[in-house]
Amino acid sequence: MTMLGRRQARIVAHKLQKFGIDIIYVSPLKRARQTASIIAKYLSIKRIIVDKRLVERNFGILTGKPISDIPRYTKKILRGHKIIYFLRGKNVEEFPAVYRRGRQALKNIIRRHRNKSVLIVTHGDIGKMIRAAFFGWNWEKGLKTRYFGNTDILELSFEPLGKIESSNSHLKLISHCSSSKRR
């Protein structure tokens, strides 16, 4: 993790103090785990759960390619807020699958941690799918919503009741994207 990444994690941790986080769920990817560890240390949180369902979408052939290369590999795109999403491509995980994975992770967290304040440290595309599942939207509407950038905090609260099920849980999602220039 870069010095900038560590500084961003400390800034986010400071912002999260007011939420009284009880537990952290995190993607298995290294930078997300490092971010979660910095936040946990800053907030004195003992429990971090790594959940493979929170990993970023598999970009397949487009992994590491700049946005300008997308038309070379696929014509199936969706323009979201501030970003172009490719919908198909060789070995690309399609958004319906990412949505199902995000919904499963969300339901598991809600079931296991009722009345807790949960922080989810994850990535942009899966974060948007978790938000879509929370509000009962489909994956396409989830992509068309406000951009979920690196180190953004998105609070999802069941007060009033959310769409998944009744609970007093509070979820905070932190996006940990590698770069907004790559999709």
**Can you list the strand order of the major beta sheet?**
2-1-5-7-6
CATH architecture term of the domain at 21-58 and 93-175: 3-Layer(aba) Sandwich
How many H/I helices? 6
How many strands, what sense, and barrel or not for the largest sheet? 5 strands, mixed
- SSE order: HEHEHEEHEHHEE
Q: Gyration radius, to the nearest Å?
A: 16 Å
Distance between the termini: 20 Å
Q: Do you know the CATH topology of the domain at 21-58 and 93-175?
A: Rossmann fold
List the keywords.
alpha/beta; Rossmann fold; 7 strands; disordered C terminus; five-stranded mixed β-sheet; 183 residues; two-stranded antiparallel ribbon
What does this protein structure show overall?
The strands form 2 sheets. Strands 2-1-5-7-6 form a 5-stranded mixed sheet, sandwiched between helices. It has a two-stranded antiparallel ribbon with strand order 3-4. The longest helix is centred in the middle third of the chain and has 18 residues. β3 and β4 form a beta hairpin. By secondary structure, it is α/β, with parallel strands linked by helices. The protein has a domain of 121 residues: Phosphoglycerate mutase-like (Rossmann fold, 3-Layer(aba) Sandwich), CATH 3.40.50.1240. α1 packs across α2 and α4 crosses α5. 35% of the residues are buried. The protein contains 6 helices and 7 strands, in the order αβαβαββαβααββ.
